[in-house]
Structure formats: structure tokens, C-alpha cells
Amino acid sequence: MTPEETTRPVSPQQERLIDQDQVRHIAYLIRLALTDEEADTFSRQLSTIVDYFDRLAEVDVAGVPAYHQQPMRRAQLRPDVAQPSMARDDFLANAPQHQDGYIRVPVVLDVADDGGETLSAATDEGRSGDESA
Amino acid sequence: MNLHELTVHEAHVLLQGGEITAVELTQAVLDRIREVDPQIRAYVTVCEEDALREAAAADDRLRSGDGVTPLTGVPYGVKDCLSTNGVRTTCSSRILEDYVPRYDATVIQRLRDAGAVLVGKHNMDEFGMGSSCENSAFFATHNPWDLDCVPGGSSGGSAAAVAAEMGLFALGEDTGGSVRMPAGFCGVTGLKPTYGRVSRYGLIALASSFDSIGPFTHDVRDAALVLNAIAGRDPRDSTSVAAPVPDYAVALRTDLRGVKLGLPVEYFARGLEPGVEAALRQAVAELEGLGAEVHEVSLPHTAYAIPIYYLILTAEASANLARFDGVRFGLSYPPLDSPEVVDIIERYLQTRERGFGDEVKRRIMLGTFALSAGYYDAYYLQAQRVRTLLRQDFERAFEQVDALIAPISPTPAFRLGEKIDDPLQMYLSDIHVVAANPGGVCSLAVPCGLSEGLPVGMQIVGPPLAEAEIFGIGAAYQAATEWHTARPAIGAAR
Fold first, then answer.
1. Contact B361 A38 (CB under 8 A)
2. Which of B9, B120, B192, B384 could share a disulfide with A66, CB 3.0–4.6 Å?
3. What phi, psi does B263 have (nearest 5°)?
4. DSSP per-residue string spanning B117-132
């Protein structure tokens, strides 16, 4: 088969399989900011790709087990015995910010009201009062 | 004699005989990198000082004779998705641009133990997502045979580095053709071992059920020597297989009497560029001349290999790349010392927007779509069911024949920029290589001709854990032909 024969291009007029709202929703699920222009481009490209992938639906899979649901015959776990792991300083060496042997993380919950007290020790103390989210 | 042109087995004889030193050999490779890499751009990082220090240690070992292996003192480079202790490991992504691992991947540790000398890290499509090496966040790599062409992907830097003699061998990683396809485009030998044959510990994951680390070399003998060093069970990878590792270098043969080879009709049906088809047919005739029996076989689900592969790959990749969150390691945006204050969700959004390139964004969106409520059954689950059928195709074929002979790509290397704006066309260039990964087989790529001056390669595909058998076939082919000795005309002294 040639690539030409296997492609069924989606014409611009044709309804897209994945519209821009879906693209924005998916992007938010995977925590990816998108511009409007990117949402449009990705909607067009993903629709073309998914349209091509729809050929899978023509395969009769009645009674065929999904590959990933078959028993793992080969996976072998090592004995559950404690052994030395990477040193803490090595773990922290690549952290964007760390303090007192811990990774500093941005504010996770809204700390504007009470309840922020317990969190602030584990978050970004110097800034937590300014957080509005 | 130009030392950088040597094969691994040639270098080993000279090193062991004391005719050259590892420092001389390593310096020759570093000089070669300085000479030709400005044109090729295969290396993201060159670790000159570390390499010369490792080479000096290898010379001590060679002088004492203790623990000398066929790789002792041999300079090599690796795809930049393999963790190297103290050496930047980027996956050619902005999100890992400054990441310096504090541990070695198991394959790197094993090569260090063998005394091999790491000279640097190779450019790739970002996180392995691409078929041309143009999706690197840093720069594109050029094909040493024609600088206007791509080296293939995603391990394009590794293939180009070996082809242009900037390292005697390389390690790449093949998730759906990423070793074999660039090996074919660059005219070198490349192996996708069986999944689990080589430990994935320390490999930055793309698709965890497909990823296979394998060598690029100038010939099959060298590939066997490298696999000898890296294969085998690793307690740190529960999917690494416990099957014994044979000495792959003794499995090499010079005739093919009694060997049954299959030509999958779907791969030869139509659509091969004439120069590619002619080279393949000639290679099949050579194999018959060596005594092999050749039969046609059928792999009826071949037409579904691309959607199976891309749906499962993107689903697994979308989960694997969730770890890049701007908190534990890698890029964090906005910079933590900037006055701008953002909450953690906003930090995720901005870090990932800036850290990932377009193809990465496309694929993790596609994978999330394939896994999402309402679409999971039609896409991800359907792909995993048809994957079972695809595997059964291979199992049936291997009841009839010992190995399959297949093209690597419908065309030789395409031009830089030719497919970069059309993601689906780029995916379709993988049509002959992707099935091996969901299919669970091993596959060896060897050069078998030239089409208008560009290399053409063939795949020798074997059943699970039949690396010794496909090496045997490849070695017999290379003993009778010269294509693996062709080198591109680049640099001085040609």
C-alpha cells in the first residue's frame, strides 16, 4: 500500500471528528495551555489522524482478548527486601526548588482562608499569602 | 589508517595487540566529531574530558589484561533518552534541557563495566516522537549521505553518528522503528531486540510496552558484540526476561542451508519505490544463493499496524509524560525566582506548554482522547484487540519459516521539511517497521543497496528471542555482499 492510497483526507468543510472545544478539554486534562490558533490546528490534525484510525473498526474482534488484559507471563518481581536507594541529595539535585531536604512545591489548595496554616509549611511560605487561586 | 573508520571488532584486535591505545582511538573519534558534526549535527552533548579519562582507564585495563572485553576502549555514543550519570540527558526536549541524571541506565552501566568509552549523547525526535529527527527541540540532524535529507527517526542522531564515523557504535531505542528506520536511511546495521531482552531501567519512557534498546553498528558482528554486553535480566526492570543470553557472536554463520525465509506479501504488494524494490529483490536472490529456501507468507493485519501502534503508543506516552510537572525535576515555568506568582495548575499548564514541542502535544492529546470516556472502547481497547490478531499473524508465519525478509521503508531517506507539516504522512512512513513492536518480535536492519545514491536497507524479522538466528542470517548476507562496507563521502581524506 502507498501512503497516498491509505490516506482519506478530511476536507476543511467536513465536520471535524475532534472539534476545538474537545481539544481544549483534552488539553486541560493533560495540563497543557493552548492558544486559539493551536486549538484550531490540533483540531484539524487530530481529526485527520483519527479518521484514518477509524479503519480499525472494520476488524471483527468478537471473542478476541485485548492484548494488555492477558496474564503477564514474564513479569518477575524481585524479593521485597529493603536495599539502599539513591541518596537524598541526588534526588534533590534536579528539583527546581528545595529546602531543608524537601522539594518545595507551589500552593496546591486555596490558602486564603483558615486551613492555610497547616499547608503553608509544606508550600511556598513566602508567597502563600499572595496566592489568589 | 583513520582510526574512526574502524569496526568494533577491528578496533578490538588493534587495542588488544597494543597497536593502538584507547586514548588514541577516542581522540580520533573526538577529532572526527569536531570535523564533520557541524554539518551532520548528530550530537547534543559531547563529553570530551570524561571520554578521555575513561579511555585512559581502559588503557590500564588493556595493559594489565584484566577484565578486557571486546568493547574495552571502544568509543561510542547513545541516544539522549538513556540516563547517564553526570551527563546531561535531554530527550531533545526543552523540558529536560538542563536535566543531569544522578544515575546510569542499566545499559550504560553494563557498557561502563565492559570498558566502553562514552563520547556523547545523540540528537533525536523529542521523546522519540518522530520519524525524521526534525522534531528535536534543538536542531535537525542531517543524513551523512545527503545533507539535504533526513537521517530518519527517532534515533536519527545515533544512526547518523555511526554512518559518519563519529563513534564506532551507538545505542538507540526502538519503540516503533526508531532504530531500524534510521539505520536503513543511513546505511548502517541496527537491531530492535525482543521486548524485555534488554533492560529499560534508566530509559526515559515513551511507550512502556514497546520500548526496546538496541545497537547501531557497521556490521552484524559488531551488533552481536554489543548485544552480548547489554542483554539479560535486570532486577530493576520487572519486564526484562530471564531467558539465558547466548554468545551472539558465535551464532554468526556463512551459509543459509536449511534456513526458511518468508516474504510477507503485504509488505511487497505495491508502493515500494522502484530502487527500493530492486534492492530488496536482489537481496532475496543473494539469500537464496546462500542456500535459503524462500516462501511467500501472509500477515493479514498489516494494514492495521499503524493505527494499532499509534493508538497504544500515544495512550502510554500520555501517561508517561504526566511526570513532567515542573515540580520534581526539569523545566519549571514561570521561573521560581521571578516575581510572578502562579498556583500549581497554572504552573503545570505553562511549564508543559513551553516545555513540549508540537508533536509531543499532538500525541499526548491523541492518547488522552483514545483513553477518554466514550472513546476508550472504540480506540484503545479495539487497538489492543487487533494487536492480539497482529501477534497471531506473526506466530502463524513463524510456524512456516525461520525469519521474514521485509523492507524498512517504502522510500530511501526523504528530504528535510518534506513531511514535517503533515503528521499523518509522517506516521505512514513507518508502515513497514511499526508492526514488530506490538507484534512482539525482534528485527535486524541491514543495508542492502543504494537507490540514487541513498542507502536502502532490509529487515530480517525473527520470532521472540531469536536474535541469534537473525544475526546468523544477517552475518551470512554480509559475508557474501559489500553493502555494509559502503561509507558516505563526508569529511576529508576520501
1. yes
2. B384
3. -105, 110
4. EEEEEE--SGGG--SS
Cβ(B412)–Cβ(B185) below 8 Å: yes
For residues B429 and B205, give the distance between their C-alpha atoms in angstroms, rounded to a whole number. Answer: 22
Helices marked H in B21-150 — which ranges?
A: 22-40, 48-64, 106-114
Cell 591505545 found at: B21
Give A-chain residues touching B239 at CB under 8 angstroms: 74-75
Instruction: Extract the C-alpha cell encoding B413.
Output: 531517506
Q: Sign (positive/negative) of CA torsion B207, B212, B214, B216?
A: negative
Grid cell of B105 as nine digits: 541506565
Q: Record the cell numbers describing residue B142, joined without a space.
A: 542531517
Sequence letter at residue B206: L
Q: How far apart are CA B182 and CA B161, in angstroms?
A: 11
Q: What is the DSSP letter of B490?
A: -
> To the nearest 5 percent, what fractions of chain A are helix, strand and coil?
40, 5, 55
Distances from the Cα of A14 to the Cαs of A17, B42, B422, in angstroms?
9, 42, 18
Distance, in Å, from the CA atom of A19 to the CA atom of A22, rounded to the nearest integer, reads: 5
Contacts of B387 in chain A (CB under 8 A): 66-67
Instruction: Look at the pTM and tell me if it is higher than 0.90.
Output: yes
Q: Is B376 on the interface with A (CB under 8 A)?
A: no
Beta-carbon separation of A56 and B306 below 8 A: no
Residue with cell 492477558: A70
The secondary structure of A23-43, three-state, reads HHHHHHHCCCCCCHHHHHHHH
End-to-end CA gap in chain B: 12
Give the DSSP per-residue string, B392-418.
Answer: HHHHHHHHH-SEEEEES-SSSPPBTTS
B277, three cell numbers: 524494490
Count of CA atoms in the C-beta half-sphere (13 A) of B471: 27
Complex ipTM value: 0.92
Question: For B300-344, what is each residue's pLDDT tens digit?
Answer: 999 999 999 999 999 999 999 999 999 999 999 998 888 888 888
| CA pair distance A111, A98, nearest whole angstrom | 21
Strand-pairing partners, residue A71, are none
Closest CB to A53: pick one of B241, B269, B307: B307
Contact status of B308 with chain A (Cβ, < 8 Å): yes
Beta B75-79 vs B442-451: how paired, if at all?
Answer: unpaired
Give the model confidence (pLDDT) of B124-168 as tens digits. Answer: 999 999 999 999 999 999 999 999 999 999 999 999 999 999 999
